[in-house]
Amino acid sequence: MTTSLTYFNFDGSRGLECRLALRLAGVAFEDIRLDRPQWLALKPSTPFGALPVFQHDGRKLAQSNAILTYVGRTHGLHPADPWLAAEHEAIMQSVEDLRHKMPGRPDMSDEDKRTAREEFAAGWLTIWAGTVSSRVQGPFLEGAAIQVADIKLAVILKGFLAGTYDYIPASTLDAWPKLVALAAAVNAHPALVKLT
Questions:
Q1: What is the arithmetic mean of pLDDT over 125-151?
Q2: Of 85, 104, 115, 160, whose CB neighbour count within 10 A is largest?
Q3: φ, ψ for residue 171 (rounded to 5)?
Q4: Closest listed residue to residue 178, CA positions, set 146, 132, 123, 127
Q5: pTM for the whole thing?
Q6: Could you give all domains of the chain from N- to C-terminal order, each with its CATH number?
């Protein structure tokens, strides 16, 4: 039985969250990382023409949320209760929404980027953070048990908490200590501490 995860040759968020979930689950897998020429050659054969791609026992699965949900369900890292599972899946989708709404097109001027990101941080990001924070029991979404949705949240929070994004200060999420604590708890998890 062969298991692999294919992503670009850098620690992009979607690849990282899937790698971390597999590590947390204790799944041995081949970590395939592609450079641009390799990706362009492989792209036509990938589901949806995108990465990451998870392969297991001759089957392929694409889209990070689908991969996370599969790993979570298979290894007890996703709620068994259908309603709780749907809530976690909604949170994971909200992370994708956050990624898509982050202003910063390559053609934007620096001033336009500053204005757009300041508005984003004061508006949509605030709404998102408040909604997700209200769902966190602490330290993880469901209390003491880490789930794949916690990993996805920690990966997206990492960039904000590190001040990675121009014009969005690292202190932006200080108003939501549950989110800060969740990211810290994922980073400190014994199975992940050397990987995050």
A1: 98
A2: 160
A3: -80, 0
A4: 132
A5: 0.95
A6: 3-74 (3.40.30.10), 82-188 (1.20.1050.10)
